[in-house]
Each structure stands twice: as structure tokens, then as C-alpha cells.
Amino acid sequence: MTEPTTESRPTLEAVAARAGVSRATASRVVNGGDGVREPLVERVRRAVEELGYVPNQAARSLVTRRHDAVAVVIAEPETRVFADPFFALQLRGISKELTLHDTQLVLLLTEGRDDHARVGRYLAGGHVDGALVFSLHLDDPLPELIHGAGVPTVFGGRPGWGDGSRGAGSPVYVDVDNRGGAREAVRHLVELGRTRIAHIAGALDQTSAVDRLDGFRDVMVDADPRLIVEGDFTPGGGERAMRELLDRCPDVDAVFAANDLTAAGALRVLRERGRRVPEDVAVIGFDDMLPVAEQTDPPLTTVRQDIEEIGRLMARLLIQGLDRRNGKGSGLGGAPSSVVLPTTLVRRASA
């Protein structure tokens, strides 16, 4: 019986021979180098396709100094990440942009302090070209660990520093106008004639929650402190906060919730307590995550941020920065600038 034979993988030398060029020329084309005439580039590419050549990533990294991989670090436990559609939308935007640049996404989650150290070691090990980091908390050690690893980084959301403190340099980030969006939401409630407007804040160790609370206070300058309760951006947090609000202030007639999941939890409690929405209590959320906002009862009025676009822009800024470091692209040096996207109020039945 004849043993099956295994065809050896095609080599770069075979590609060069098929294309009729030197190995050095074939290597420059395969590894994205410059200085090769277009007819030769086409011959090498055609040879690669015909032979089914797959570049050796380790060898390619030596030439390009790129791993074609980016770490996405989410500073939340996996139970939160996989339960919250916000993260799925942001990851989808990141993945789409990285795919355009033939770059792999490496997902890293942090369950606790031991995981922070693990993430820091991984980033320092030279496995990825850069990092995209979001859902940071104010006491999070990740910025220092990432800075120590020397990895180019773009943050999702405005970090809690911007002056080079904490040893992490001046951050590059993509955010939305959280404060302005909150102001628009609360002004809408005022225009509806509501006078006892409450706010269920997000976790106040995150800048997005602080900015939305500030926006609420910009409009409700003399708000009763009892009408502000801290949640945690989850439906359960919204339920707990709504019960506390109703126990404290039974005459509340409107609620601005820090995000759609919080608002969904608040709506459940209002229904349990026999409060009609929006007749008795108007409710507004933040995010406009369609799997949530369009399926609440009633459908949720909310502040829209383009979550997927945030992810795309984060990845784009990082790739542009990496290209500048390697002398590619149209940029002539200089770090990428942070971006703050606008928000819009989407009116549905809840307010």
C-alpha cells in the first residue's frame, strides 16, 4: 500500500522563480515594501496566488517590524462583556476596520488584578503592534502597565487623565459628547413640563458617567440631591436605583438614565409599581442600542451615540499611528488626534 505524500509548502524562493525575480524583490512585494516596479509587483502577486504561498509571519515581522495583530483590552469581566450589547457593537466596528488592514484582533479581558498583570506581560512580550482599550475605571492600573509595555494605544472614551499624569502620557482617545447629549435629554424632559426629574447615573468611577451627570446638573442646577442615584450601567443597577428613587421621592415624574440598559431596568420597576410611562413618569436612556431601545415597553427615547463608529475610529487612529511610525501613509509624523463624536436625541414613546 502506497503511503500518501504531503506536498511541501511553497517557499519564497519558489515564488521568486515563478515570477522571474530575485528573492529580495519577491520578499519586498510579499512584505509590503516599497521600491518595486508595478509590473514586477503584479508578477510576484500572480506567483503567490498560483502557488498558494503563505508568508511566514515570524520572518515577515523581522522585515516589517509589524505583527499585523492588535490587542483589544476591555477592562471588564467576561460576564459583563458578553451580556452587554454595547461591547459587541464596539468590537464589530473594531473588527471591520482591522479586517480592512489585514490585521488580527486579539481580545483580552480583565477579571481582576491578576488579569491586569497578565495583560501587561502579554503586551510587553511583543506579540501585538498596538492596543485598543476601553471601559477603563479611574483606579485602573492598565494605563501604567500599557505605558510600561511601550505599546501604541488608543482609548475608547476619555480617560480620567489628560495631562500626562499617572506615567501614561497624553492619551489618544475616541469619545462622544456625553455631557452635551445629557443636556439635550434633560432639556427635552423640561420642555415636556416635567419638574421632578431624576438621574440614574452610571458607575461614577468612569468618565462617561461623570460627564453625563455633569450634563444633567447643567440643566437641573438646583436639583434635589435625592433625585440622583448611582447605578452601574446594568439593568439590575437600573432596577435597584429606580426602587430607591421611588421610595425617596414618590413624586418623581421623569428619569434620565445613564444608558439604555439602566433605563430598561428602571422601566421594569415603574411597571411593577403601577406607574405609566410616559404619562406618569417619562424615561430617557443613552446609547440607542437598537436591540434594547426598540424592544423596551414602551420603546425608549434615548441619546444616540454611534458605538460601532467609535470602534472603527479607534482602530483607524491606531493603524494610522502605526503607519506613521513605519514611514507609511500620508501622515508626516506627529501623533493622531483624539476625536469626540456628536450625539443626537432619538424620540420614541417613553418621553
The proportion of strand residues reads 15-25%
Largest sheet, if any? Answer: 6 strands, parallel
State the assembly state of the protein chains: single chain
- Strand line-up of the largest beta sheet: 2-1-3-4-5-11
Helix content: 40-55%
Could you state the order of secondary-structure elements as H and E?
HHHHEHHEHEHEEHEHEHEHEHEHEE
SS elements, strand count? 12
Describe the overall structure.
With 351 residues, this protein is an alpha/beta fold. It is 44% helix and 15% strand. It has 14 helices and twelve strands. The radius of gyration is 25 Å and the shape is elongated. It starts with 11 loop residues before the first helix and ends in a 5-residue tail after the last strand. Mean pLDDT is 87; it is low at 1-6 and 163-168.
